[in-house]
Specification:
Helices cover about 10% and strands about 40% of the residues. The chain is built from three helices and 18 strands. It is mostly beta strands. The longest helix has 26 residues. The protein is rod-shaped and about 165 Å long. The chain folds into two domains: about 100 residues, no CATH class; about 170 residues, Porin, CATH 2.40.160. An eight-stranded antiparallel β-barrel has the order 11-12-13-14-15-16-17-18. The chain has a two-stranded antiparallel ribbon with strand order 1-2.
């Protein structure tokens, strides 16, 4: 571009024209070097890439003095960029703590010396891996992230805890169980029982008939009889499946029970009756063990057979009818259900 001064023409002042040319020359001299510098990347707003210290590890590149992922766009949360520019999922960033160090006069020397995987920078130990390795990996002396052989992921730790063997049941090998029928209070009395054995067991059972509600309504010759008192006892046998311990699982077996019943009639026959019965029976059910506590549920079927009966008159009007003191030896079918509650006695 050339600038020249011309002689003034008519209608145009020389001073104004020269000033305009001078202003244009100054503007060109000011902006031209800046435009050239900007085109060449030498302006104040453009800084060439610096060197990263320590150098970036695999999957990262140095950009303006900082390590940036090779992946573009950058990986999301929980993902790590590899050297091939791929995003892979990781747990979370694991930052190994550098060994303790103190500054010295030399900014490139640390005391004590940095351990393997770290380097001294400005008097402090920093990881050789830049950025630091993810959780489950350790930085090697060559600046590479290698698997940590001592690392146990949290998920695996939880699974190991969940699958840890339960403490042994101290009653698993018991040979003695004590229990009673909770439903007996609604039938013919509770039945405290002692049972001894393992897969096969024998038991002895006591039956206080006065502890059952049904005894007061169903025991006697007829509707006028009143139940006075009674007691029974049984010896029986059980076979258990015993899969998770002794005296547990499915069971069943026979038993024979003896019972004595005393009733009286004070309204029509005026007599007292004493009856001896044998009750052959069979039961079956399932028993659960909750460490020391046991729970059994099942059904019992029996037949009450009177084997001896004695009738005694009451007062002057006793046995007033011809059949008042006759023996009644008819058998009676006795079904029932039971709910055994009790506990296993641990072996010493």
């Amino acid at each position: 571009m050339l600038f020249r001064f011309e002689a003034p023409r008519a209608g145009r002042p020389q001073t104004v024209a020269n000033a305009a040319r001078l202003l244009g020359l100054l503007t060109w001299l000011t902006t031209a070097p800046l435009a050239v510098a900007q085109d060449r990347g030498l302006g104040d707003w453009s800084t060439p890439d610096d060197q990263c210290v320590p150098s970036c590890r695999d999957g990262y590149e140095c950009h303006q003095g900082e390590c940036a992922p090779v992946c573009n766009p950058s990986c999301g949360p929980g993902m790590l960029c590899t050297g091939g520019g791929e995003c892979v999922r990781v747990e979370s960033v694991y930052q190994p703590a550098p060994s303790a160090s103190r500054r010295t006069g030399d900014p490139n020397q640390c005391l004590p010396a940095c351990r393997s995987g770290f380097t001294c920078l400005d008097g402090a130990c920093v990881s050789l891996c830049n950025p630091v390795c993810p959780r489950g990996e350790l930085c090697s002396q060559y600046g590479e992230c290698l698997p940590d052989p001592e690392y146990v992921p949290e998920r695996r730790a939880v699974e190991r805890t969940a699958s840890a063997p339960r403490p042994p049941d101290p009653t698993r090998d018991t040979i003695v169980a004590l229990h009673a029928d909770a439903l007996g209070s609604l039938q013919f009395g509770v039945t405290p029982t002692v049972e001894v054995g393992e897969k096969y067991a024998g038991y002895a059972r006591l039956r206080p008939l006065n502890t059952g509600v049904a005894s007061y309504f169903l025991l006697g010759h007829d509707d006028e009889d009143e139940f006075d008192w009674g007691v029974g006892g049984a010896l029986g046998f059980h076979a258990f499946s015993a899969r998770d311990g002794n005296l547990r699982g499915f069971f069943g077996g026979p038993a024979l029970e003896y019972a004595f019943v005393k009733t009286r009639d004070t309204k029509r026959d005026f007599a007292t009756y004493r009856t001896h019965l044998l009750v052959p029976q069979v039961d079956f059910g399932y028993r659960w063990g909750f460490r020391s506590f046991l729970l059994g549920l099942g059904m019992r079927l029996g037949v009450a057979v009177p084997v001896h009966e004695r009738a005694e008159p009451r007062g002057s009007q006793g046995c007033r009818r011809a059949d008042s003191c006759d023996r009644d030896l008819d058998a009676t079918f006795l079904p029932g259900v039971f709910l055994d509650l009790g506990y296993f006695v641990p072996r010493r």
